TrEMBL record:
Residues 5-85 form the GST N-terminal domain. This is Glutathione S-transferase. GO terms for biological process: glutathione metabolic process. One of its GO terms (cellular component) is cytosol. Its main location: cytoplasm.
Length: 171
């Protein structure tokens, strides 16, 4: 793996959001130090200092500077290491905006409804969550047909991209 300067990832093994960052670092071929956080028993001073607003993982620390929130970290990795490995975001500004939209859609629509489908307090809440999840998946399938150029295997076309990482980490 290529060096990326001083890269450190604060994470938790069960977090799909941390997995997103690990996938992106791997696709870019970047080496990094991984620091497992025990967010149940107590957060480390490094985490509290690096992410004082939310105090949650993931946090990527690059040359001593923290970057927070998984989708923002993915964009940062793509921009900061543009000459290393494949690009996660398309070069075309419109296609880049579309990729950002669908990644946000996954976090804002698909994930909450999916969580509600099994965490709902009542059967009705769970059923509504499932209904919303299926509607979100239908929207994503339609977008996939458009974004993948019809016959490509991934949202990004022939290579893994931003939306693929955002969605794939949840699978």
């Amino acid at each position: 793996m290529a060096g990326g300067g001083d890269l450190k990832l604060l994470g938790m093994w069960a977090s799909p959001f941390v997995l997103r960052v690990k996938l992106a670092l791997s696709f870019k071929g970047l080496s990094y130090e991984y620091v497992e956080e025990d967010i149940v028993r107590g957060k480390s001073e490094l985490l509290l200092k690096s992410n004082p607003v939310h105090n949650k993982v993931p946090v990527l620390i690059h040359n001593g500077k923290p970057v927070c929130e998984s989708l923002i970290i993915l964009q940062y990795i793509d921009e900061a290491f543009a000459g290393t490995g494949p690009s996660l975001l398309p070069s075309d500004p419109y296609e880049r905006a579309v990729a950002r939209f669908w990644a946000a859609y996954i976090d804002d629509k698909l994930l909450p409804s999916w969580l509600q489908s099994f965490r709902g307090k009542t059967d009705e809440e769970k059923a509504e969550g499932l209904k919303q999840t299926l509607a979100a998946v239908d929207q994503l399938e339609a977008a996939f047909k458009e974004c993948s150029k019809g016959n490509k295997p991934l949202f990004g076309g022939d290579s893994v991209g931003y939306v693929d990482v955002a969605l794939g980490s949840l699978a």
